[in-house]
Amino acid sequence: MCKSSATNYTNLHQLKSVLISGISGMLFFASTQAQEISVDLNSNWRFRKVGDKEWLSATVPGTVHTDLLNNKKILDPFFGDNEKKLQWIENSDWEYETWFDIADSAIQQNHCELSFEGLDTYAKVFLNDSLILSADNMFRTWNVDCKKFLKAKQNHLLIQFESAVRKGKELAKQLPYTLPGDEKVFTRKAQYQYGWDWGPRFVTCGIWRPMKLKMWSVFKINTTHLFADEISDSIARVIVEVNITVDRPTTVFFKLVAENGTRDSSYSSITVTPEEKISNLLIEIKNPKLWWCNGLGNPALYHITMQATNSNQQSELKEFNYGLRTVTLIQQVDTVGRNFYFILNGVHVFMKGANWIPADNFLPRITKEKYRTLLSDVKDANMNMLRVWGGGVYEDNSFYNLCDSLGILAWQDFMFACAMYPGDSSFIENVKEEIEENVIRLRDHACLALWCGNNEIDEGWKNWEWQKQYKYSENDSLKIWNDYYNLFYSVIPDVLSKTDPLHQYIESSPRVGWGHKESFERGDSHYWGVWWGMEPFEIYKKKIGRFVSEYGFQGMPAMKTIESFTNHEERNRKSLAIKNHEKHPTGFETIDHYMNDWYKKPKDFESYVYVSQLLQAEGVTTAIEAHRRAKPYCMGTLYWQLNDCWPATSWSSTDYYGRWKALHYAVKHSYEKYVISVGDREKILSVHVTSDDTSFTKATLTLCTEDFSGKVLWRDSTVAYVSEKQSTIVYKTMIDDLTSTLNPSRAFLKMELKKDEKILAQKIYFFKKPKDLLLDKPDIHFSVQKLKDEVTIFLSSSTLAKNIFLDLKETEVHFSENYFDLLPNETKTISFQSTLTFEEVKKKIVLKSLWDSF
Q: Which residues are catalytically annotated?
């Protein structure tokens, strides 16, 4: 039985006493009218630069950049080096306006409230020429009582946006020292908009989330909070904490229904006064189904409806999807240092995933469909966790809803990254409101695993020489650190203790920088020895943390993506367009450094793009396999990064348009339930099987060496005993014994793990790096089958074809596998969905291998 710590919220016996039979309650649910009237105000907007005469049509939600683009006033911000030509936008002020009418029945309600879910960032709101709001935080929802300003016809709503860049610089001047992060740290705004080493600088503004006019009388439900007080095999008791506002003493009748195959109901009545806001309800769910993350079980969700009705038959309906689960972060001192791992429903879980950044520089362009595509790709790659990085935004509700339904746990940073922040009372109060609102919005999601204060600020202060760079005095350093400590060690934990005591919190990720050996011994770690430290990929096998929450390597996006932001003549690494879409200061130099170590020099630009992706996959999967081999010492691996905010060369495994790089295909295999990996230290080759299964496995491991023409040179097999949720060495041999009778540049080791004729895992191990392999020109044969919209390609070759890449000209498809090794005399089956005819597929297919790139 799992029992949460939520019992301090209420007394269950008292809650049970307010449960009523439902007979009287049903009278109020038979025929009711909506209590709250909501008017959508997201249409018929126009905008202009303050001071201009011309008004232009605007889209709400939207941004000034996308509105200018839609009106053909600017060129595509993502194309070529247009970014540099559009920096004037951030220094200008902009204003938006609309007019709207209100029906007589609506305006007669006792309360009228304008609700702005997202204003970016410094905004003054005028309703019928009266200033009703001054906003200064894009992460907050702003609710304004506006009844006295409203009229039935021709209400004029005007929103003026002040330049956040100019405002930030003005605030910075008020301090006697410079804070790391420059003007952006003074603005409660998505930090990545100011540019990062994977993204452009587009400091935008606008009405970036929906807005509504809400009208109500008698009572209104403000917020709800669901938590399971107790979960056992036979019953789960779910408390629903209701924050309700009334304008006079009111008895409210509640009906709660929880459905997931079965249906459980409860009825309650509560008398609320204007002085009291919080009430508690209880619903008991029989034979509850638990929510599990991807790979461990079904992410079961209960659809819970709550109908609140008063004696006048006014009603308000709320709906939730709620998962029954317990998730705990364990951080205990052990013989090495301090561990760091998660337990879900009593099960120790190795976290396999990536870091998430905003999926567009212009946030309103991220549709529910794009969220679904990206998060489905996360599930398909066998991931169970995403870390929502602190330099972006608290994502839209649809992101977390999808994580709930797909079984993807969310490590949630608060929005602070790689900088120091002011500590004045105005800033702190603003942040407190931001934290409280977003915690209340997100706390009930089954996917939520952890709150984290910030990204890399502890490490930055201690290791990045900020004190020396900015020439701080001793007093300045003390003041800056104390402000930091107050925010992340006092203010935020205090808000969480009141709003969400059920989820755990860590102050900063990581606590120790990768240049210190302690980073591999305690807590989570960001390991950047590869890339930033220019250490070889092999170092991943030695430097392994307890939970590696950041590491990575860059790769270029697909050629189709590059074509979207370049002209034909710009498709070379010297062009301004290509350089502008590589934001790391030494990006191509670093890629070249590693590429020279692993691959021959690509013959042209397109080949360079392809090989850069193979290189990225080689590096990151080397790390993943090392982390998984180290279970349970290491209990998590989250590479940097899953996605992109624009089309660019970056650390992402899926590019801006959702196209899978070689890395994402490779990760899908490296994150499978069973994975074979090879340790090759001190001339000993050890074969490891890593299992995420919760049961012990007995299987057969077969091994054979083959040359590139398919001749079997050696074969062996053994019974593999694989412990549950562990990594087990199942075979060892001397490397010299394997290679003494073969040419290591023309042979490979093939391994296969089988149980009851079912293949659990496969692995191909090469004795040499790709640049040292003596590859033959492959003789690839393929055939195509089409059944309805399912296309299947059958590939074979008489010799090894390394890293086969498939594409269809001028056509967007997703292949079941890509960038794979086609072994000699074996048939590989690849499938994809397409409405193209059989002949069109054969005509458009593109096929290349590593041999073709040099």
A: 456
